[in-house]
Each structure stands twice: as C-alpha cells, then as structure tokens.
Design brief:
222 residues, alpha/beta, Rossmann fold, 5-stranded parallel beta sheet, two-stranded antiparallel ribbon, 9 helices
Length: 222
C-alpha cells in the first residue's frame, strides 16, 4: 500500500510522514519511506535543487511542463527502488509524490491550460514512466499565512543555502498551489484532507498525527 502525504511548503509533510512510519512500525507493520525530491541521490534530484535555487531562471521563466519533467525524472530514477520497497513491505509512506508535481506546476496555469497540464504530467509519471499510483493521498491543508511562519522556522536544507527556495518564497504562488491541491482533493477518489488549523489556530503535531493515522486505518477497512 502506497500512502502519499501532500501539502504546500510548511504544512508538516515530513514530520507527519515520520510520525506515521513510527506508528505503523510500532504496530508491527513492515514500512518503507521515501521523501521526494531525492536531491542528493539522483541526477534529476540535483537538477531539481538547481531549479529551486534559481539557476535556470525565475519561477515564471521555466515552462511548467519542463519543470515537471525534472521532478518526474527524479521519481523515474527511483522507480525500481520504490517498486522493490512496495513488494517487500506492507506500507510505503511517501513524503511528496506525483500529486505534488501536479499541484506545483498546474498552479502556474489556469482554466483549460491547467486541465491540460495536469493530464500531461499524470501521463508522463503514471503511463510513460509507469510509476505506481498511490492507494491514498492525505492532503495536509494549511493557510499560506501560517505556512510562511513555519517555513521561516525550517532548519537548513542540503539542496539550498537560502532561507526559502523559489517556491517557498512566493506567497501568491503557494496560494495557487493550495488551490490546486484542494481542487484535486474535492474531485479525486482516494484523497482525504486533514486541516492543520482549527478555529484559526495551528493544531499540535500530535493532534494532526492522530487524524492522519485514523485516515490510514479507514484506508485499510474501506
């Protein structure tokens, strides 16, 4: 079973992925985990790092489908490793996956152009590169204003020496990414949205983790 955790930058995907892995292992399940992009492990992962650091130009300077090819290429390089992990484990937890590519690139287009771009990215990843589709996508939904505060607290990352990469630094862009994520969650089977705030306040990590685990449980029994 492949479980993908998605959400805009700062939504806590890495933290919640680790919490879910620890919980499932504590229940005796065999669990593998991947975090995409794999910046240091793949050729395309390093290229993604270059893109996010602005080495190919500004965020708007790179055609979104060409940007999508970089992120998809990172997963394609990881495909055999991912398939082997899926065969040898009960659950594979993914911190970002194909939906992340869809949301981030489709956010740069609107209307029919957005619809066409989504279809092209999914064709590339699932049909051309033959990546397995996730069994469940858990969207960690967070308002951009709160995400901005959490991004500012992030520890240094290996792929960038900036406080925020190109995508993280653009609030208007993050708002459009969130919009695409919510559209996908509303219309795609197998998606569940977990709100990271309640009454305007950020929920605790433990509170969110409990709901994420409950979604996994519903996936098993659904």
């Amino acid at each position: 079973m492949l479980i993908a955790l998605e959400g805009i930058d700062g939504s806590g995907k890495g933290t919640q992925a680790r919490r879910l892995v620890d919980r499932l292992r504590g229940e005796g399940r065999k669990v593998a985990a991947f975090s995409f992009p794999r910046y240091a492990e793949t050729f395309f992962g390093r290229a993604v790092g270059d893109f996010l650091n602005g080495r190919f130009g500004s965020l708007d300077a790179v055609d979104p489908f060409l940007a999508a090819v970089l992120f998809a290429g990172d997963r394609y390089e990881s495909r055999e490793l991912l398939l082997r992990a899926a065969a040898e484990h009960d659950v594979v937890v993914l911190d970002r996956y194909v939906p992340s590519n869809v949301a981030h690139q489709a956010a740069k287009r609107a209307g029919p152009e957005r619809t066409d771009l989504i279809a092209r990215i999914e064709t590339l990843e699932y049909e051309v590169y033959k990546l397995p589709r996730p069994d469940r996508v858990i969207l960690l939904d967070l308002p951009v204003t709160t995400a901005r505060e959490l991004i500012a607290r992030k520890s240094p990352r290996g792929y960038t020496d900036r406080a925020a990469d190109l995508q993280e630094a653009d609030d208007a862009y993050l708002a459009r990414v969130r919009e695409v994520y919510l559209e996908l969650a509303a219309h795609r089977a197998g998606w569940t949205t977990v709100a990271c705030t309640r009454g305007g306040e950020l929920r605790t990590v433990d509170d969110i983790a409990t709901e994420v685990a409950a979604v996994f449980g519903e996936t098993l029994t659904g």
